[in-house]
Structures are given as structure tokens and as C-alpha cells.
TrEMBL record:
PANTHER family found in the cross-reference section: GLYCOSYLTRANSFERASE 25 FAMILY MEMBER (PTHR10730:SF53), PROCOLLAGEN-LYSINE,2-OXOGLUTARATE 5-DIOXYGENASE/GLYCOSYLTRANSFERASE 25 FAMILY MEMBER (PTHR10730)
Limits of the Glycosyl transferase family domain: 65-273
Organism encoding this protein: Bimuria novae-zelandiae CBS 107.79
The name this protein goes by in its record: Glycosyl transferase family 25 domain-containing protein
Pfam families to which the protein is assigned, alphabetical: Glyco_transf_25 (PF01755)
Length: 369
């Protein structure tokens, strides 16, 4: 097909616009390996007029979630809450049974414990997620486990957090911007963001942090015991305090229900945790060890923006740690019968709007007589 100069120029403009649109909201600059410094403690309040809701991938390039292939119930639930809240799930990474990790591919275990323990399969699934990020040159990705819950207003929650990390991050050089003042999603120099931890401990002596107001963060008293303890004992909040978000350099996050990785972070994780190095404990404890020693640039948001959806039956866990479930007859053990704590408006609870009476049948006409 022959194109005239005019048509060729128009075609070039269309291609340029397409490529530009694809990158909007997801592009990161190349991540520097320069040092990371924590700034002085500061207290900042959100609410700037320039804050906008996050996009469909929560301002990351992709959202990945991990699920055992047989957990179609959880996959159905993930599809529903994503659709109801306008979230796009880009990729499902299949969970891996520990028995399927060949003995030659298992991370060397220095402690000589049973190498087929459940955490081996969990590690492999997360490692597959990191490798997916690396193989596809993804610059940032949110990694979720399939029993996670988030707020109905999740885009507002993440959009505000993103804005704070780009504009008010007193913990990073250049206040979260790049060396030349450039702006990146969630700041320009990080490997890992923790927002789905089930328990968190800050550094025992370095209490560098910043705070901001989030109208979608519920009262401290609505959280689990672990987070009430953290926020009250470590940061001196009260049960009735609401709208609180607090950012720290990551020190000790337990659980991996939700976290984000940059391209550089995925490479560091795959190298440091089981890929080239020995590992003795589950990956969340491995993360803690590496965070403690400053081998990743990471931030944690407290209270977390992603929480566990607990189901009161055998479907609550895929980790065979010997748990026995004896659900009572009056307890709903389905996915719909679960619950979560620490959200102002649970997305999974919000699925109830899909139930109800949406059609009324016409009554038969009364006979005359």
C-alpha cells in the first residue's frame, strides 16, 4: 500500500499519540542505585486540590495476583471486586504446591529443615511473579494474594498515597522526586512498597516517618489487634482517631497479601531471596531480614490499605500447617460469609449490592365475576 506524504504524516501522529497514551500514569524513570536517606520526622496533612484518584491499575503499570489454580472461588471473588471498583487485574500467577518444586530447584536450606514445607511453594509463586516483572520489563507492579480485600474507594486511597509519595516524602532525597526534579509514580527511588501486611514493627530507634490525613482510613479501634497495638503503642494514637495514614522506611512487615515491586526491586528480590541465595524461612520473614539490613529501598503504609478476607471454614487457607476447621452449623463458611477488619467500606462486603430483587413479576389480572 502506497501512502502519500500527507497520509504518512497523519499515520505517524496517530502512532505517537497511541504510544503516549499507553504510557500515561504508569511510566517510571530509570531507577538509580544511589543511596537512600531518611529525612527528619514530619507531619503532613493531605487534601491538596491536585490529588486525583488512581487509575485502573492503581497507578502501577500492572496488577498481578497469585492464586492456586483450583481456587476458582477466590478467582471469582477477585474478578467481582475488581470489576465493582474499576480495577484491572492484568495477570494471574498460578500458585505452586511445594511438592511441585523439584528438589534441584529448591532454595538451599541452611537449617536442614524439611525442604517440602508449605513456604517453599509460596516462595516459588512469588518468585514467578518477580520473574514475570523482569521478563516483561514492567517498571512497577502491584502483587496481590487472592484472599485480599480493599476499600470501595480504593482508587481514592491509592491516588492520595501516590500524591503524598511524589510530593511530601520527607524520607527520600529530593522529597520523592528524581535527581533532576522529575516525577514518578509513588516517587522515583524505591524497590518495594508494603501495603498488605498483617502485622508491622517499625525500627526500634529510627522513627523517621511522615503522616497525612486519609478520609477513607477508619478509626484505629476498627483494626485488628496487631494494628491497634502498633498505632497505639508505637505512634500514640487512640481508638477513636480516624483518617490516619503513616509512612515509614520498611523495617518488619509480616505477611505478603499485597506489596509493590519496581523492575529493580524484582531483580533484587529474585537474586536475594531463593534465586541465588539460601533461604531458611518463609518469604515474609526473608523480606524482613533484607529490610532490616537495608538491602532494599522500601516504604510501609500503616494502617495497611489491603487486608485479609477471612473465611470461617476449610477454604480460609491453602497452607497445610495442620489447621483444623470445625465450622459451626450457624456459621457461613462460603466466600460470601467472610469478613475483614480495617476498612471503612469493604469491597467484598460491598458485593451485596449485586443481590436483591431486581425484577418484579406482573400479577395475573383478577377474574371478573
Amino acid at each position: 500500500m502506497f501512502l502519500t506524504p500527507r497520509a504518512l504524516g497523519a499515520y505517524a501522529i496517530v502512532v505517537l499519540l497511541f504510544l503516549t497514551i499507553r504510557q500515561l500514569g504508569t511510566t517510571h524513570t530509570s531507577y538509580s542505585t544511589s543511596g537512600w536517606t531518611s529525612g527528619k520526622l514530619s507531619s503532613l496533612r493531605g487534601g491538596a486540590s491536585s490529588v486525583r484518584p488512581a487509575n485502573a491499575t492503581l497507578d502501577f503499570q500492572e496488577i498481578i495476583y497469585i492464586s492456586m489454580p483450583y481456587r476458582t472461588d477466590r478467582q471469582d471473588a477477585m474478578a467481582l471486586i475488581a470489576a465493582q471498583t474499576g480495577i484491572k487485574l492484568n495477570k494471574m500467577i498460578a500458585g505452586v504446591p511445594s511438592a511441585d518444586v523439584h528438589e534441584k530447584a529448591r532454595p538451599i536450606n541452611k537449617s536442614k529443615e524439611d525442604p517440602s514445607k508449605p513456604w517453599v511453594g509460596v516462595w516459588r509463586a512469588h518468585a514467578d511473579a518477580w520473574r514475570y516483572i523482569i521478563d516483561n520489563n514492567i517498571q512497577s507492579a502491584l502483587i496481590l494474594e487472592d484472599d485480599v480485600d480493599w476499600d470501595v474507594n480504593v482508587k481514592e486511597v491509592f491516588g492520595l498515597w501516590n500524591w503524598q509519595m511524589k510530593n511530601n516524602n520527607s524520607l527520600a532525597e529530593n522529597n520523592g522526586r528524581g535527581p533532576n526534579g522529575e516525577e514518578c509514580e509513588y516517587g522515583c527511588n524505591w524497590d518495594h512498597l508494603s501495603m498488605g501486611q498483617c502485622m508491622y514493627k517499625p525500627h526500634p530507634t529510627d522513627r523517621s516517618h511522615f503522616t497525612y490525613h486519609d478520609p477513607n482510613s477508619p478509626a484505629i479501634g476498627s483494626h485488628t489487634i496487631n494494628f491497634k497495638k502498633e498505632m497505639k503503642e508505637q505512634w500514640h494514637y487512640k481508638d477513636e482517631d480516624a483518617g490516619v495514614r503513616l509512612i515509614t522506611p520498611t523495617y518488619s512487615p509480616l505477611c505478603t497479601m499485597g506489596y509493590a515491586m519496581t523492575q529493580r526491586g524484582a531483580r533484587r528480590a529474585l537474586y536475594q531471596i531463593g534465586g541465588f541465595q539460601a533461604m531458611d524461612v518463609p518469604i515474609d520473614l526473608e523480606f524482613i531480614d533484607h529490610m532490616n539490613h537495608g538491602r532494599m529501598v522500601s516504604y510501609t503504609i500503616s494502617p495497611p490499605t489491603l487486608v485479609k478476607w477471612k473465611v470461617f471454614g476449610p477454604g480460609d487457607t491453602d497452607n497445610d500447617y495442620g489447621h483444623e476447621f470445625k465450622a459451626k452449623e450457624d456459621v457461613d463458611a462460603t466466600q460470601g460469609g467472610g469478613q475483614s477488619k480495617g476498612l471503612l467500606n469493604s469491597a467484598r462486603e460491598g458485593l451485596k449490592v449485586l443481590d436483591g430483587q431486581f425484577h418484579k413479576w406482573k400479577e395475573a389480572p383478577k377474574k371478573q365475576g
